Amino acid sequence: MKAKILTLMFCFATLFAFAENSFNDINASYKYSKKRTIDANFETIVGTSVALIGKYSDYKISSWEENYVSFHVEIIAKANKEEYAEEMLYAIDVDFNNDKNKQKLTAKTIINKINAKNVGYHISYYIMLPQDVFVSIYNTYGDVIMDKANNNLYVEMQYGDFSIDDIVSTAEIKMNYGDVNIKKAKQINAKINYGDIDIADVNSAVFKMNYGSVKLDNVNRLIGELNYSDINVNNIEKYADIYVNYGDVTVNKISQDFESMEVQLNYSDIILNLTEDMSFTYDIKLLYGDIENDLLDKYAKRIVETKVNTKSMTGNINDSEGKHKITINGNYSDVE
Description:
Helix content: 10-25%
Structural class: mainly beta
């Protein structure tokens, strides 16, 4: 199963590389290189929406205490003919639209077509944002790095990675063919196809993942639907509801305030690296699966195996009142 997933991801990664280089190969060797910069500042008020619409663009976004947005854009164009590099350089621009009535500022990358062939270019945005604005990011072929989002954040990207240190409020993330890295977040709603997400600490997380992986160091409340994807959770504070098709689940720890975890497995396995000092009640039902966990076996109160290839096990560890419940249902799945 994992071999098939890796093969599919490799195929799509190869497709991505081919598609990107067909249009823009900045890393190729060119004879001429041209560079120009664009600088712009726009005053904002509390609640202003800032929309960044890019393609073949990298963004480095930082927050500050000023009341205006500062843009510094660097454009590099390369070609084997000097006139081609010059033409490409000025075919790229940024369309700024500052609608003060609607309290909305938009910065859009513009790449006009030229007749020259075999050219490469790179667009880099360096943006300083006030802390009280709302940010929306739409980017294709490029990475985004942020330090902090104080208000609601919306991210929609293809063929690029997104990373941020701190999401103070809520973030909605839609990612195709890219990875997400978050150090700290209050609330995340993410849909990711062909990519990975790694979060160090999050209060509430909702995921829909296809062909990728989820890694969470600490999560308070988790809801996840995963297809052909793995999820690894180091610690669950209170609640988890996980549905997995063709993937693996690993849970290393549950906290003292843990309430419940419900897991549905289809052609998937779960590894519970739990210890005797934790408190939980468990109820496991498997169709065409095995339970191979020494700790669960030791504290099992009831084990039932039938001739129709079903197996169930119930028990509790330091939880006689059943306040901390783990429920696992699986088809063609194992519990380890």
